[in-house]
C-alpha cells in the first residue's frame, strides 16, 4: 500500500496532465477501503493540491477524497474555505466532504448555505447535515463507530435486517 500511496502522491504533484492529477487525487480517497488497514498518508498531498494546483478538477477530486478519508486536523477548515467558491461544483464537493468528515466545527459554516441559490448545493447540504445527527451529539457523524453504515464499504449502504437498505442516518442514532 505504501507503494500505491507514494505513486499516487507523486502523480498528484508532478503529472502534467490534469486528468492524471485528478485521478491520482481520487485514487488517494479510494485506498482505505480497498487496501486495509485504512491510511491517511495521502491527506497532506491532497491538502497541498488544494493550494498548489490551479485546476478545479483536481480540487474537486481532492475535496471528495478528503471527505472520504474523514481527514482531521485543519483539513475541515481548509475544505470549508471552498464553501464560498465561485464554482458551484467545488461548493457541492466541499459540502459533501464536510458532511463525511462530521467535524462539529463545520456545522456553522454549513448552516450558512441553507438559503443558497444553487439547488444542488442545498441538496448536498441536506444530505451532509443528515450525517451530523449521531446519538444526540453534534459531530457524531455516520462513520464515528465501527459497524456503522460508513464501515459497510465505499459506495454501499448498510442493509436493513429485513433486507432493504438501511435508511439514511441509521446507525448514528437519529433522523
List the helices and strands and how they pair.
Layout: H1 2-14, H2 18-34, H3 43-52, H4 56-68, H5 75-80, H6 88-101, H7 107-111, H8 119-130, E1 133-134, E2 137-138
Antiparallel strand pairs: 1-2
Question: How would you characterize this protein structure?
Answer:
InterPro entries: ARM-like (IPR011989), ARM-type_fold (IPR016024). The protein is mostly helical. It has a single domain (2-130), classed as Alpha Horseshoe (Leucine-rich Repeat Variant), CATH 1.25.10.10. Helix content is 51%, strand content 2%. It contains eight helices and two strands. It has helices spanning 2-14, 18-34, 43-52, 56-68, 75-80, 88-101, 107-111, 119-130, and strands at 133-134, 137-138. Helix 3 (43-52) packs antiparallel against helix 4, helix 4 runs parallel beside helix 6 and helix 6 (88-101) runs parallel beside helix 8 (119-130). The longest helix has 17 residues, at 18-34. It is globular. The chain starts with a helix and ends in a 37-residue tail after the last strand. Residues 34-38 and 135-175 have low confidence and may be disordered.
Amino acid at each position: 500500500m505504501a507503494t500505491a500511496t507514494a505513486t499516487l502522491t507523486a502523480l498528484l504533484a508532478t503529472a502534467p496532465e490534469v486528468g492524471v492529477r485528478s485521478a491520482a487525487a481520487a485514487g488517494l480517497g479510494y485506498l482505505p477501503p480497498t487496501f486495509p488497514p485504512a491510511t491517511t498518508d495521502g491527506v497532506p498531498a491532497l491538502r497541498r493540491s488544494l493550494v498548489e494546483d490551479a485546476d478545479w478538477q483536481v480540487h474537486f477530486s481532492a475535496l471528495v477524497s478528503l471527505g472520504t478519508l474523514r481527514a482531521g486536523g485543519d483539513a475541515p477548515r481548509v475544505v470549508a474555505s471552498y464553501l464560498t467558491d465561485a464554482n458551484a461544483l467545488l461548493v457541492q464537493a466541499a459540502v459533501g466532504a464536510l458532511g463525511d468528515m462530521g467535524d462539529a466545527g463545520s456545522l456553522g459554516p454549513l448552516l450558512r448555505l441553507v438559503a443558497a441559490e444553487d439547488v444542488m448545493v442545498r441538496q448536498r447540504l441536506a444530505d451532509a447535515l443528515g450525517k451530523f445527527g449521531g446519538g444526540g451529539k453534534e459531530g457524531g457523524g455516520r462513520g464515528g463507530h465501527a459497524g456503522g453504515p460508513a464501515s459497510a464499504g465505499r459506495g454501499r449502504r448498510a442493509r436493513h435486517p429485513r433486507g432493504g437498505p438501511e435508511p439514511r442516518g441509521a446507525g448514528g442514532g437519529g433522523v
